[in-house]
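Pipeline run #58 for the internal structure catalog. This entry was flagged by the ingest filter as a single-chain record with no existing model, so it goes straight to prediction. Upstream metadata was stripped on purpose; only the residue string is passed forward. Reviewer on rotation: M.T. Logging verbosity set to normal.
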Amino acid sequence: MSVPLGINDGQSTTRPPMFNEKYYSWWKARIEDFLIVEDYELWTIVNQGHLIPIKQNAQSEIVPKDSSEFVAADFRMIEKNAKAEEILIYGLGPDEYNRTSVYSNAKHIWDALQTAHEGTNQVKRSRIELLMRNFELFSMKESEPIQDMMTRFTIITNKLKSLGKVFILEELVSKVLRILIASWESKVTAIQEAKELDKIPLDELVENLKTHEMRKIELRKEEPKKDKALVLKESEDDESHYDDPDLAMFAKFKRFMKNSKSASKRETRSKHKQTDKANYDGCYKCGKLDHMVKDCQCGKSSGGKNELKRRNGRR
């Protein structure tokens, strides 16, 4: 049910709400509540028709009384009829008043307003079908707060209610649980397992969901942000793993630098080996070219020692 913004007239518990053609469903619900609080019999008069003082005639037939036969109780009935009519027309503007001024009782005024703003029964059925389609296709938006979702949901159900389509409690509760997005799945399961859906008041369910929503928000605030470097280390071989394009690019760059360093180290080792081979001139102790000094056997045997002395003598 759409609610007008900035409506200041009629916002009182002591006077009826002002009629608003654009927001007829809103006005209809408020005027009904006002009549019931004022006197439930007034709402009965508007909804079902005038109270009529009656009597039983000589033929045992029930007939209306003549005004000359009224007693105190009959006058109270007439007064209530007039009060119900007064409350209805009190907040009407000129156009609506002219439309209903031809009617002599509150029931006829009420029916005329309904026909003018809700249409005939055929029009009402068409509107109900359209609203029911919106009801069936209704779903929660991504990242939408529970309160905002329920406001949209209530607008649809209130419009249907004003047209005569009423839902039982279990239907509304089940619908609300079905329209929640996937991130609420664990909470939905917990509610379904813990309680009987036909015994959960809708307001209690909404408060339960809002409390859970606040806890989720607080947990997200307290959860430390994961170090991006640690994220990169966990799966640095595949940048497609990241939803963040900056992380993916950084992972690719890091892998490129790692490969570049490895190639540089291999090239350096290769150059060192080539340099060692170019400068290699054999064992400096014995002068042989078939081994290095660390593998030299000269000096470990007597023959080797004599050979070493002989070579040293030549030098």
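catalog note: The beta strands are 54-56, 62-64.
catalog note: The two ends are 115 Å apart (CA to CA).
status: ready for reviewer M.T.
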